[in-house]
């Protein structure tokens, strides 16, 4: 197979990382003091993070649509380990703002042992079925200049998955690290598929977790705001202003559906993921929907 490493990639603890994520910044994240009013959104890449961010931000900010439609989501909820401008970490910029902090990460739980043990910060872990996640990540690799605009086929990409050479490491190892703590009172598991099928229930559950309340009208406005058509045309969340993303190859928000994996996976590939799914999630009692 061709060499599909991307420019400047480096590896930390079996995680492939972009050069815009440095060991220094990860160390700073690791030691960050977090309070019970702070919120950390943790997700493996391409699991519906932006969709979930927008939902959680609105629930935590009294459905402030005016701000949601005027301030980009990546400013409202910074990607904490990343250097968006290539120089200053988003963490540095976050620390210049007033608490409470809202932030997102794609790092595994190993980096947040201090905060998990303290048991203060509210952590919402986003999860999506692994097959749709991998298909979405494949197209993300293709359109992302920072990841080298992947030129290989789906089968080539799946080989990267099998050799655990994808950004942020292996999907199942990543989730095993976080799901170990899923029953802690300050940690909430949010399933992408539940957002599709049961958004009203998801909102009720998150409001209770966040200690917030909203009117029925506000909740209806949020649900309308979060539709795929609304999100994909919303410049505050669709990342169209970023030249590193080639939108002619794929959109940042591509389809927003469940089950697209069936158009890509061979029976053999499906069996490989099924085994890891069973081995990892069965002992944890986690079930995901694949269609």
From TrEMBL:
It holds the Pfam family Sulfotransfer_1. Keywords: Transferase. Residues 37-281 form the Sulfotransferase domain. One of its GO terms (molecular function) is sulfotransferase activity. The keyword Metal-binding does not apply. The keyword Coiled coil does not apply. It comes from the Eukaryota. Belongs to the sulfotransferase 1 family. This is Sulfotransferase domain-containing protein. It comes from Paralvinella palmiformis.
